[in-house]
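DATA SHEET
Item: assembly model
Revision: 1
Owner: S.N.
Input lines:
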Amino acid sequence: MTAPASPTTVRGETLLDVDHVVKHFPITQGVVFKKKTGAVKAVDGVSFQLRRGETLGIVGESGCGKSTLARLLMRLEKPTAGRATLAGRDLFAASGGELRRIRRNMQMVMQDPYTSLNPRMTVGDIIGEPFEIHPEAAPKGSRQRRVQELLDVVGLNPEHINRYPHQFSGGQRQRIGIARALALRPEVIVCDEPVSALDVSIQAQVINLLEELQDELGLSYIFIAHDLSVVRHISDRIAVMYLGRIVEIGTEDEIYDRATHPYTQALLSAAPVPDPDAREHRSIIRLRGDVPSPADPPSGCHFRTRCWKAQDICAVQDPQAVPRAADPHPSACHFAELRPGP
Amino acid sequence: MSQHAVRPTPASPTPPGGHLLEVRDLHVEFRTGEGVAKVINGVSYHLDPGETLAVLGESGSGKSVTAQAIMGILDTPPAHISSGEIRYSGHDLLGLPEEQRRQIRGKEIAMIFQDALSALNPVFPVGWQIGETLRQRLGMSRADARRRSVELMDLVQIPAAARRLGDYPHQFSGGMRQRVMIAMALAMEPRVLIADEPTTALDVTVQAQIMDLLADLRRNLDMAMILITHDLGVVADVADRIAVMYAGRIVEHADVRSLYRAPAHPYTKGLLNSIPRLDQRGGKLSTIRGLPPNLMRIPSGCPFHPRCPYVQQVCVDVVPHDLVLGDGRTSACHFAQEVRDDRAG
């Protein structure tokens, strides 16, 4: 397989720049005359950069907006506000040929390998379908060879090109989804919970495959997941989302060893550790209550209703994700501090 | 637990030396149009009062089917229990007529499921659903059942229980729905609670809340618990003993600490090595090669042999028996001791 479009560029340059992206889904009432009565603030002002060759992990619990964010980046949803550029091209303003070129450069791997592949298409047709939309990516005569190459790259038997999805196991189907995402030689792949539907022993195989592909092809990943250990394993930097916002972002060490946001600390403390000897030493931060509805988020800091540090200022003033005295990585908390050691 | 002394004296006390619940050499097959899938192939485990046994396995390993057999809720057909014994405080459950099994189900052994949304009835208020058991099984009046439902909802820490009695399942969050289901399971004050992936559909912070709750309830009500899960982290947090299942067999059985310290079956070892750890970054994950077997064509000899790094000719030819390793540990591997002592692998 050949290298992506620009192999000479330096690792570290910003490839994807996301700036204050907002997505509000309107809540309407009435059948004929729909009246807007509110909005679900799924993504509420998210900014981050993805550098070339890196993996940005995005973690958060259900309803935090991480999947909506992925769909916005893929232009499957229209943003309410905000800007994003991919390799200098405006992501949200693009249309027609420009949008096709952008999409060619950014592909997606979905969570559920059982529903994201059309059961009536052969594997060859599934992986080759992107070439129908982007015929310039592979001339007609060479497509079958290219699909077989892709099967080989993701560790499947190229001779199985005429099989149907149901003839493959979950892990193999996820490989098919990855081959489809690689077909157009994109620079960025958005992975939305790519291993959470897989068994533990298969999960490791797919994670290793994603890492090998990144090394070989210089890919950049946005890796969305709720499993904190998986995210730590694969990511260079991590963004933690809560109720539509990024509350903390930093390198893998900064987030896992030096988190300063109370939500990140609670999330990390709650993750089960596969070591029975750690049972007694663990101090889990127990959060009160449930995540508030994104249709009616709390004023000021969204996390304040469950936070043990909350003061009056938290209800009034929105904390910005800026470097804090406790540790110089962005954390959206007025009282950002390191968690005292165990 | 409460002012209500609803628990009847058990039909017969645990026989001296016997276990509260015991599964002996259970075999279950699914007879389908395409052939016979051997889903459970000789599973034995036991549970004593007050302890937590984790049954760990991947999809298709048979961990849930065993639990359904204990509860007597297997879908027959296609499922058929071809042999084996399930004993609950002296009774042979499989030999009991359905009416007597019904007396044990819920009252002595209760179960909670992974997906609370589909396990609850969407068209009835949760208070009514919790109360239904009390009215039907204990013959409580509506008012008593209502009062007791509020108590149970308090017990599982649902805030403002009295006000939420009339709410429908969709008005609760995932974690709260799971609490409702736990409340229903506790209504009859069972002595055994089977929790089938109780937190798999939940977020980590909510998962921690629910596991805490289950641990507290188990302690305070002196229940025994079977925790069915695929999550090695959850097991390490709460279980006393663990049984690891693969292709319908228990391949390793040990107390949790010894198993995590030195697994004695290559499958357990492979699983423990293949999970990414929160406290360490990067590197290549070690994997278990290949795929779990098709249960209609289970490999000869040891069912794990096609994926096993320790495989020898004997593994292809001979089905390994449970090797006893001391401290009540067993491993169904011809090379159990070597695997346990091989710290490098």
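QC remark: The first helix of chain B runs from residue 63 to 71.
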